[in-house]
Fold this protein.
Amino acid sequence: MVKKVLVILGSPRRKGNSAILADQITKGAESTKAKVETIYLQGKSIAPCKACFACQKKDSKGCSIQDDMQKVYPKLIKADALVIASPVYWFTMSAQTKIFLDRCFALPAYQSDPFKGKRIAIAMTYGGEDPFDSGCVNALRTFQDAFGYIGATLVGMVYGSAMDAGKIKLNEKVMQEAIDLGVKLVSE
């Protein structure tokens, strides 16, 4: 069976370091014949959750906010695996990534247990030298906690230091780890 992988890019830079790592994960997944689709969050009209709880009511029709997230929900449901890529901004994931995650709160209105059994890979880049003092660990821990809580399988995380766009390419070890993660994401 061909696996469907949905890549969510949460950087404002389309060719930034986290996007490069996600591309490496994609290469690994595609090497196993997986079908991959990529969504760039930057430029999409995705409003923050307004805590109206319309999505949580009995017989809900879904999220009450009519924006680009309505196009993303069906893709999330159909995907067998997700890749979420984000740079670290102010000690955690980017705002684009966080808004996307917050809006996933409504996903159960479209399908019960929508993340149960989904396989997840995370790609993060940060400007400092250390994943702890840069805040990368804060974001990674958020992903671990959230996806563990909702029953998804966090297959792996790849992360590395790179401030300037494209600099992550110089880290051959991380680049190879990303390809390997893509293979692992769809192979088990």
